């Protein structure tokens, strides 16, 4: 949440997700991304047909490239947040890859590549960034510290 709000002022925020449009539309009310690529299901007369019109999850790197090109954006000082292995190809493309509450496969990949891992549980946020050191723990009530950390990452 904090990453979104800290960066929303200076960056174009893009969501590339396998979730279907109807779910993302509801999510958009709370997290107003500038651009969204999501799964679009075919419907006729308000009934789903079982066909998929568009599904970016199969190649998120290609989807990211399309968004960058079509909207004349840049990956300079870019970041990406992912939580599962389909996100790896996008995470490889950015300056600051962040694995947020990753599944096991993405967590193992993040360790190999020394990517940032953020795990949020209840009121505790744990940031892993150098696997030879102990993680940084940020109390969920100390949001100011988290904002400073995010700004430092993106500077």
| Binned strand content | 25-35%
Distance between the termini: 19 Å
* Count of helix runs: 6
Mean pLDDT: 83
Main sheet overview: 5 strands, mixed
Report the radius of gyration as a whole number of Å.
17 Å
Taking pLDDT < 50 over at least 5 consecutive residues as the criterion, the unreliable ranges are none
Helix content: 25-40%
In one word, what is the shape? globular
In short:
This protein is α/β, with parallel strands linked by helices and 155 residues long. Helix content is 34%, strand content 32%.
Question: Any descriptors?
Answer:
8 strands, 6 helices, 5-stranded mixed β-sheet, alpha/beta, 3-stranded mixed β-sheet, 155 residues
Notes on the protein architecture:
This protein has 155 residues and is of the alpha/beta class. Helix content is 34%, strand content 32%. The chain contains six helices and eight strands. A five-stranded mixed β-sheet has the order 4-5-6-7-8, with helices on both faces. The protein has a three-stranded mixed β-sheet with strand order 1-2-3. Helix 1 (2-8) crosses helix 6 (143-154). The radius of gyration is 17 Å and the shape is globular.
């Amino acid at each position: 949440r904090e990453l979104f709000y800290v960066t929303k002022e200076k960056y174009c925020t893009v969501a590339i997700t396998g979730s279907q449009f109807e779910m993302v539309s509801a999510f958009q009310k709370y997290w107003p991304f500038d651009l969204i690529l999501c799964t679009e299901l075919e419907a006729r007369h308000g009934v789903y047909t079982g066909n998929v019109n568009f599904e970016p999850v199969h190649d998120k790197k290609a989807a990211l490239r399309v968004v960058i090109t079509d909207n004349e954006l840049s990956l300079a000082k870019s970041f990406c947040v992912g939580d599962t292995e389909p996100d790896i190809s996008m995470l490889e493309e950015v300056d600051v890859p962040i694995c947020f509450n990753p599944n096991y496969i993405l967590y193992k990949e993040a360790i190999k590549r020394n990517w940032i891992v953020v795990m949020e549980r209840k009121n505790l946020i744990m940031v892993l960034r150098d696997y030879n050191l102990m993680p940084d723990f940020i109390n969920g009530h100390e949001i100011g510290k988290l904002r400073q950390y995010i700004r430092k990452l993106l500077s």
